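Protein modeling request. Please complete all fields; requests missing the sequence field cannot be processed.
Requester role: graduate student
Desired output: 3D structure, C-alpha cell encoding
Chains: 1
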Amino acid sequence: MVQARGGEGTGQAATVVTGETLDGAGGRPDSVTRFAHMLSQLSSGQILMYAILIVLLFITFVPIIYLVALSLKDNGQIYGRFWSMPNPYRWENFALGSLAIWRPILNSILTSGSSTVATVVLASLSGYVFARHRFPGKEVIYTGILALLMIPPILTIIPAYVLILNMGLENTYWALILPWTSGGQVFALLLCRSFFATLPEEFFDAARIDGASELQSFAQIAVPLSAPILVTVAVVRLVTTYNQFMWPLVVISSPKRQVVAVALTQFTSEIGVTDLGPQMAGYILASIPLIVLFSFGMRHYVRGLTAGGLKA
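Delivered output (312 residues):
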C-alpha cells in the first residue's frame, strides 16, 4: 500500500511505503528486501558461523531423511538401487515393522518408565538429605558414592548378572528395573544434591515454624522448586534406559519380554533373510516415544540444564 501526503506549502508529495510494498528495483517482496538488508549487516565471521551451522544441520538431517527413504524400499531396491529414491513406495513396511516391535516398545516403556520413576524418587530424597541436613560422615559417604562414577558400567555386567541369577530374577522385568534404578542413582544424586543446596533456607525455616514435617517440606517446597532438575534427571535416565542394548540382551531371553533396542536387530524372514525395509520402519516407530517425550519435556529439560550449569 502506498499513500501520498502533500507537503506544507511546497506542493510536493511524499510517499509512505508500508510493509506490503514492492521495491521499485526488481519488484521483490519487502520480506526479501529485509532479508537482504539483514545479510548486509552481518560480518564475515557471522556469515561463516551461520554457513558452518547450516552444513552441520544438513549433515545431521541427511541420515534421518535417508532412513525414511530406506524404510519405504524392499530388499531389492536397497541392494540394487541404494542411493535412489523408493520406486514404488512400500508403505506396508510400516505395518510389518509395527507388528514386530509394538510389544518390545511397550516392554521398554514399562521397564524404562518404572526405573526412571524409582530413580527420581530415591535420588531426590537422598539429595535432599545430603543437601539440607548435617550428620556424621556425610561428606565421606557422599564422596564414596561419587567415586562410583569412575567405574565403567561394562565392568559390572558379570557381577550384576550373577546377582540377578542368584536372586531368581533372570528373564523378568525386575532384572531390568532394579539394575537400571540402582545404576542411575549416582549421577541423579549429584544433580539433585547440587540443586537442593541452592534453595533458600528461609523457605524451610518458615515451614518448620508453621509446624511442617521434613517430609512435608520436601514434598511441598523442595520438589516444586526443583521441578526443572527432576525433569532433566528423568529425561536423561529414560533416554539412557530406553536405548539400552547389552544388559537386556544378557538377562532377557524371552521374546515376549524383550525390549525394543534388542528386538530391532531381529527382523528376519522365514528364509533367514533380514528385511531391511521393515527394520528401518521399526527404527522410526521406535523413536516416536522419545520424540513425544522431548516434545513435552524439552522446556523443563533445557531449564534444568541451564539451572544446573549456573548453580554448579
